[in-house]
């Protein structure tokens, strides 16, 4: 089974926000939400099977997260449609980043990886 590293017809957009009122496990942690929009510009449906995230804080501490689907689902995204979900991350620093990929499969059964470019998590107005 061969896998294409990325598919230019699957567009991934991420918007982030700091959650200052979110209660964290430790008082010196920072909570962030990220909303992902996956747009399928191909000619056939695709299914998101699994995810991988590399989360890095400002101290260089990394955390890897992987598993089936996203937010408990393995959505099928029809041709020309999009899927949106919101999830979150907790950091030990007020600034960090995330990047990763989705393992996906086309309706014809061919697998591929949709890369997610690095995006920033940051407390607003922290850096001028």
Descriptive overview:
The protein is built from no helices and eight strands. The chain is mainly β and 128 residues long. It has a single domain, classed as Sandwich (Immunoglobulin-like), CATH 2.60.40.1470. The mean pLDDT is 92. Pfam families: DUF525.
- Summarize the amount of helix as a percent range: under 10%
Instruction: Decide which structural class fits the backbone.
Output: mainly beta
Uncertain ranges: none
Q: Could you say what the CATH topology is called?
A: Immunoglobulin-like
CATH superfamily: ApaG domain
Mean pLDDT over all positions = 92
> How many distinct folded domains?
1
Number of helices: 0
Label the overall shape. Answer: elongated
Topology:
Layout: E1 10-18, E2 30-40, E3 46-57, E4 62-68, E5 76-77, E6 82-91, E7 95-106, E8 111-122
Short description:
By secondary structure, the chain is an all-beta fold.
């Amino acid at each position: 089974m061969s896998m294409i590293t990325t598919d230019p017809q699957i567009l991934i957009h991420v918007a982030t926000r700091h959650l200052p009122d979110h209660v964290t496990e430790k008082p010196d942690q920072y909570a962030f939400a990220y909303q992902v929009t996956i747009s399928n510009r191909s000619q056939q449906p695709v299914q998101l099977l699994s995810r991988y995230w590399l989360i890095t804080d400002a101290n260089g501490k990394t955390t890897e997260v992987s598993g089936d689907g996203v937010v408990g689902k393995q959505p099928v995204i029809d041709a020309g449609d999009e899927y949106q979900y919101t999830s979150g991350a907790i950091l030990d620093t007020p600034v960090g980043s995330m990047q990763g990929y989705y393992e996906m499969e086309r309706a014809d059964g061919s697998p591929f990886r949709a890369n997610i470019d690095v995006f920033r998590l940051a407390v607003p107005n922290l850096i001028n």
